UniProtKB/TrEMBL annotation:
Top-level division of the source organism's lineage: Eukaryota
Name the record gives this protein: ERP44 protein
A Pfam family hit: Thioredoxin_6
InterPro entries: ERP44, ERp44_PDI_b_1, ERp44_PDI_b_2, Thioredoxin-like_sf, Thioredoxin_domain
UniProt xrefs under Gene3D superfamilies: Glutaredoxin
Region entry Disordered, spans: 363-392
Native species: Dromas ardeola
Amino acid sequence: MRPAIFPLLPDAGCLLLLLVSWLFNPTRSEITSLDSGNIDDILNNADVALVNFYADWCRFSQMLHPIFEEASNVIKEEYPDKNQVVFARVDCDQHSDIAQRYRISKYPTLKLFRNGMMMKREYRGQRSVTAIADYIRQQKSNPVREVQDLEEISSLDRSRRNIVGYFEQKDSDNYRTFERVANILHDDCVFLSAFGAVSKAERFSGDNVIYKPPGENAPDMVYLGSLTNFDLIYAWTQDKCVPLVREITFENGEELTEEGLPFLILFHMKDDLESLEKFQQEVARQLISEKGTINFLHADCDKFRHPLLHIQKTPADCPVIAIDSFRHMYVFPDFSDLSVPGKLKQFVLDLHSGKLHREFHHGPDPTDVAPGQPIQDLASSPPESSFQKLAPSEHRYTLLREKDEL
């Protein structure tokens, strides 16, 4: 009689090993590869998209790939709808046209998009699964705080920029446009909303949006355009939320430096708001036409002692105005000359013309020397840029180009 043959079954240890392997090695999610043919469709239909601009030969890109994929796995467990959150990537060597379109200057660069619109602030946080996942959760949180009583509006933190919307209904085109704007600018302003009976007292002429600027006595500003026209309300809100003169900190220094524009900086003590207000007024009066050619900033003298030392100043000398061109630093001669008509503007124009650079190396321009006075070539060495050190680190990115500033 032939013996019965039974199939071999795995023992309990093997079954446990298979189970553990399955639990800790789940099916990896696919990162969407973007190209010229699909990028607009995919990004336009995504509530939030995090895009990794990379190059295969870049070692920092290679290090990020598995972290980016695992963060995608974690987030897709929480947001399974494919259009809620998209993790995507662009091979910038293969698609240089896309890299140029989004002005990629280093690898890897992580850019956030909302409904196809690229956010100004890219992801610059820690490159870990936890940090990237937390960043996406933050981006998915509601950017607008609903108030239940108008008394909450009267007790707002007036050191912040506040945008308040009063709406009859939450389910309305007006509010949806407001919420879309808030999604983009919530890092720059605090957005609040009130609905129905709570907002009725503020809706005497219909739904409206109000800007409450910093300062207890600063007057409110009312948006007068269409509440369903995204471009109009976005432009108005951006103008209110992103001031002409911004504060530079160690947290945003890399971002500001990477914009590539020279800095015109007021160094002032934190509680010296009078000097800051004068600087803001003169920048608005004299230099509004230079917006886009130079960044207007203010900095805490105590926090930025090192740049002050570069120009042989200390906090005791503040307020001090200087230009950092990312190559050299130049000092505005005297803060008390700030209100002299055209003086601050000429300082900036002298940077653009190269005059500041020439004079530091060779003494006054011939046109500035009195008739009959001999022209002397005075060799000098202007202080090196201090804020250039806040630029993206070569130990974190592959930088694609160097800038030669004045």
